[in-house]
Amino acid sequence: MRFFVFFVLSTFSVCETSPSRSVFTNHWAVRITGGPEEADKLASKYGFTNLGQIGGLEDHYHFHHSRVVRRSTFATRGTHSFIHMDPKVDWIQQQIVKSRVKRYARSDPNFIYFNDPKWSNMWYIHCSDKNSRCRSEMNILAAWQRGYTGRNVVVTILDDGIERNHPDLAQNYDQLASYDVNGNDHDPTPRYDSSNENKHGTRCAGEVAAVANNSHCIVGIAYNARIGGIRMLDGDVTDVVEAKSLGIRPDYIDIYSASWGPDDDGKTVDGPGPLAKQAFEVGIKKGRKGLGSIFVWASGNGGRQGDHCSCDGYTNSIYTISVSSSTENGNKPWYLEVCSSTLATTYSSGEFYDRKIVTTDLRQRCTDGHTGTSVSAPMVAGVIALALEANPLITWRDVQHLLVKTSRPVHLKANDWKTNAAGHKVSHLYGFGLVDAEAMVLEAKKWRSVPPQHICTKISDRRTRYIRPDQKLNASMSSTGCSEQPEQQVVFLEHVVVRVLIVHPRRGDLEISLISPSGTRSQLLAKRLFDNSNEGFRNWEFMTVHCWGERAEGTWTLEISDSPSQLRNPEVLGKLKEWTLILYGTVEHPYQSQGSQHSRSRMLEIPSIKGPEPSPGTPQHEDEEEEEFKMLFCITAAVLFLSHPSNVLSFFLCFSSLLLSFHRTCVSHCPLGYFENIEARRCRRCHRGCETCVGHGLNECRSCRRGLYFYTEENSCVEACPTSYFKPHCILFSLSLYLSCCSLAGMTCVPECANGTFFNLEEMKCSPCHISCSTCTGPFTFTSALFCLFCYVIFSCLMSFSTNGIFPVSSIDSSIYCVPYNTL
Ligand SMILES: *[C@@H]1O[C@H](CO)[C@@H](O)[C@H](O)[C@H]1NC(C)=O
Ligand SMILES: *[C@@H]1O[C@H](CO)[C@@H](O)[C@H](O)[C@H]1NC(C)=O
Ligand SMILES: *[C@@H]1O[C@H](CO)[C@@H](O)[C@H](O)[C@H]1NC(C)=O
Ligand SMILES: [Ca+2]
Ligand SMILES: [Ca+2]
Ligand SMILES: [Ca+2]
Q: Where is the signal peptide (predicted)?
């Protein structure tokens, strides 16, 4: 069967115009027994032309229907479709221009080939492999193809040094962007020891600016940028060391990338001291000749310890761009720290079977084992370097606006994605989502600086409020956005900071949320299992970016809850003594200053049936047919409504969607079912069944509407997964799939086994759990290596598995081992 499908495909794909689009053709393959005469008869009965037998395949005919739309994105309906039900037809299939063609499209003629040996392993930049593990949504290649490679931009890595004579760094190494704060000299070369402890800075530097096409190691994201290193982590880090490091040559260095911070132990609350704080402020005010230094920060690796990045004053600062990580499959990595100050995300490592990052390594080597959020800060620094090349005049705040505007959720999985009142999708795991280098350079190119930053501060009264374990404490404050003081007035929000003075017997028991006037809820603090401190929060500042673009005016509510752990006397109550709301933002709409010739470009239009906008290669028919279908559906809904008034909802929905399609509307984000065509500034329809997509072909889906399953191999949405493919992503069954599913709690991808049993991969059947588990996902053994692996998996699947069980520990290099809980 396969053979003739390809035969038909190759016959028709060559004469079609756009090989990258996957659509239904007006050709069918039919199996009819009874000879050519019978086939002819059936063809004419339903209005087809029989083009004869398909190659050497007996009883298989090629039918053509001239009155059916030649290229359509969905299976067409009409009297011809009744042939499907004719008993004389054994089998019939409308031909689709599908993945065969698509895969050729992947080796697109513009594809850049570099001779660097690890180029093919740089999965987060390009798709060189033909399998479905292709992940290129950071669009770095596309930014390069537009000519941006970081030229004339200077980046430095604040870390444990940089191997300046590394063959993949030497050419871009910049002495003037470097300093050794630990050694107090101008040479940031790391200190070598047998464990290669000081490899971190060199690894980060390569990600940003490793030299391209030099037959060595990798290609940096901004491979023509200048790269320096500030050696400051290899020694006692003090406030002075930090302040010095953050303030080195602010007029020369554009971007500072830092992948370090306070201990990620889940119990520390710490941030910049008074000098480092001043260094940040001086940097954003005076750096880059007044445009502001750009500080990029890793959000932290304390996920396993239940750390929350809001307790890290560096990532939490409005002056740093805090960056999170996601695995290649869009899963939450074990080290990820959740908090509301995270702005954007890049790919990084995940479980041991997920791919890691390749980069330059100490001793002139190359590694494919770079991991954690340390990966993500330099990646974003590289992407910002591309944007600064596109427009060197953007300010430190413009850079943050650009990231808010262009980062996307794509396939990053989190259960807290929400759309704020300004239309931005945001999550506590990933901020505004995966960075998009191409969108960054395109936006940067035409960007006009946002209006000046205003700061509106309001302090609560000094009334002590008790935090009772059984009841949430709600403290509200109404704000005018300082409308009475023009110098401070904020109408449109950027960052929001809440400073709290809380006295509490056990800090780790607290949870704090902030609800904006528009109803957006930011979690400022989550419970931290290991935080036993009785110090409370003494004027600690929590920050959220989740209200970005919303209006400042209205009632703000701080919600505090306390769930006493067994380690404390629940009779002792915590107290909120004072809180301060600090709103940052602008009076004018930040994007109105973009000027009239630019403002239109900020909007994407939803197409209408009146829209005279057939794009090249897109048949007009499909929209018309769909509208016709919609109209018919609406009429049906109207009739139903008239006879049964309880059907009012579908009637209403239908008409509102019809109205939407008749009127062009400007929106800041395309609705579900549409994708942004940036060049045409339009929202275009995804293929039917797709909820999100990157194009409107059948194989360009990224997620599916309810009731359909995402078929990963083909990027399409199907009603049922093919055999041996499992829901919800129709992935071929494999060990790594099985393990990765476990971290997607609640998703079924292995055969379901009864409670107390698990799916045994060796025996391919359900087997009983170890006696200690009520539920499990794997066997339980203390001897084999599998034990660790499954201990780990058990943990990711069953969050409650803790006190009397095994607790998994994992180092940053993903060597996984398990220890009994008590010994921790
Ligand atoms: C890299 O160098 C090779 C020659 O070694 C050349 O064929 C190729 O086009 C270069 N790639 C780029 C992107 O410049
Ligand atoms: C605070 O608000 C929540 C709902 O957001 C409510 O459940 C709770 O009872 C309120 N607490 C008090 C003390 O009113
Ligand atoms: C297993 O137990 C859970 C609750 O403990 C229940 O919801 C579920 O239906 C049970 N599954 C089976 C297959 O018995
Ligand atoms: Ca030195
Ligand atoms: Ca290289
Ligand atoms: Ca942390």
A: 1-17
Residues 6+ apart with CB under 8 A from 445: 390, 391
Active site residue 80: no
For residue 81, give the amino acid letter.
S
Q: Measured on CA atoms in the order 139, 140, 146, 148, is the torsion positive or negative?
A: positive
Spatial distance between the Cα atoms of 26 and 171, rounded to a whole number of angstroms: 56
- The residue nearest atom 11 of ligand 3, judged by CA position, is 755
Contact 800 CB / ligand 3 (< 6 Å) = no
Asked whether the beta carbons of 418 and 333 are under 8 A apart, the reply is no
The reply to whether ligand 1 has any atom less than 6 angstroms from the CB of 213 is yes
Residue 62: CB atoms within 10 Å: 24
* Largest Cα–Cα separation, the chain: 94
Does ligand 3 have an atom closer than 6 angstroms to the CB of 783?
no
How far, in Å, from the CA of 755 to the mean position of ligand 3?
6
Active-site residue, selected from the candidate residues 340, 374, 407, 522? 374
CA 271 to chain centre: 27
Please name the residue whose Cα sits nearest to atom 4 of ligand 1.
Answer: 115
Tell me the backbone φ, ψ of residue 594, rounded to 5 degrees. -70, -10
The CB of 15 under 6 Å from ligand 3? The reply is no
Question: Which tokens sit at 363?
Answer: 């001793």
- Concerning whether 236 is annotated as a catalytic residue, the answer is no
Q: Determine the 3-state secondary structure of 424 from DSSP.
A: coil
Distance 337 CA to ligand 6 centre (A): 7
Q: Which among 108, 115, 140, 145 is the best mutation to test ligand 1's pocket, defined by most ligand atoms within 8 Å of the CB?
A: 115
Report the nearest-CA residue for atom 6 of ligand 2.
Answer: 472
pLDDT at site 639: 64
Protein residue closest via CA to atom 6 of ligand 3: 755
| Pocket lining: 755 vs ligand 3, CB cutoff 6 Å | yes
- Cis status, amide bond into 728, omega within 30 of 0: yes
312-324 tens-digit pLDDT? 999 999 999 999 9
pLDDT computed for residue 322 by the predictor: 97
Beta strands in 384-443 (DSSP E): 418-419, 425-426
Instruction: Cite the beta strand spans of 617-700 per DSSP E.
Output: 666-667, 674-677, 682-685, 690-693
Q: How far apart are CA 382 and CA 389, in angstroms?
A: 11
Residues of the chain with pLDDT under 50: 1-22, 98-109, 130-132, 595-625, 662, 734-750, 772-773, 781-824
Cα–Cα distance between 245 and 230 in angstroms, integer? 7
Roughly how many angstroms between the first and final C-alpha of the chain, as a whole number?
59
Q: Which pLDDT value is given to residue 672?
A: 80
- Which among 386, 401, 476 is positioned nearest to 432, based on CA atoms? 401
Q: Which residues contact 87 (CB under 8 A, 6 or more apart)?
A: none
All residues at 6 or more sequence positions from 541 whose CB lies less than 8 Å from its CB, including other chains: 271, 313, 316, 497, 498, 499, 582
Report yes or no: 261 and 242 within 8 Å, Cβ to Cβ: no
Distance 334 CA to ligand 6 centre (A): 13
Q: How much distance in Å is there from the Cα of 683 to the middle of ligand 4?
A: 54
323 near 299, Cβ under 8 Å? yes
The total of other beta-carbon atoms located within 10 Å of residue 698's CB is 27
Those residues whose C-beta lies under 8 Å from the C-beta of residue 270, and which sit 6 or more positions away, are: 262, 263, 311, 312, 313
> Which residue's alpha carbon is at the smallest distance from atom 4 of ligand 3?
755
pTM: 0.64
Q: Is 159 a catalytic residue?
A: yes
> Distance between CA 492 and CA 290 in Å, rounded?
23
Strands 701-704 and 690-693, by their bridges, are antiparallel
Q: Which domains does the chain have, with CATH numbers?
A: 23-96 (3.30.70.850), 151-381 (3.40.50.200), 454-586 (2.60.120.260), 596-685 (no CATH), 742-823 (no CATH)
pLDDT of residue 699: 85
- Calpha distance 366→168 (Å, rounded): 9
